[in-house]
Amino acid sequence: MRYYLLTVIMAAFLSTTFGQAEKVQAMFVYNFIKYVEWPASSKSGNFVIGIYGNSSIYEELIKVAESKTAGSQPIVVKKIANAGEIADQHMLFIASNKSKELGDIVGIIGTKPTLIITESAGLIDKGAAINFVVIDNKQRFELKRENLSNKGLKISSELEKFAIMK
Hints:
Blueprint: H1 2-14, H2 21-35, E1 36-37, E2 47-52, H3 57-67, E3 69-70, E4 73-80, E5 91-94, H4 102-109, E6 115-118, E7 130-135, E8 138-143, H5 145-149, E9 154-155, H6 157-160, E10 164-165
Helix pairs in contact: 2-3
């Protein structure tokens, strides 16, 4: 059942055009929660998604957080104004206007269990675990397993089937 649901959702998103990118990305982000396993120490309290930089994905994720949870954890979406505010997010979305700071951000996060998501070419090789790309006007995502495992995160093989593996 779980695999079927993922297949239906991802197929719908992959066929969505670029004009709806933020809505599609927000739904991808929510679905990533279901297919990434965080360590036990991260499974209590709020599930925090940080948004660093200017992106309307923030507003879309706020809508998602109003009606969804991450397992039993309430989802909190936090706008991050500067790199000094990056602390204990479960997920960190770095908007394209902040992508040049990825190296510093990876250093700040260290080995904390934070899933780093970006949206600019080449960032998967600079520390992002997931990077959104548009191919033939379809929203897709690159995934680098090593960048997840370095943070103590595990990815479902079901999700890997939909990713561009790097």
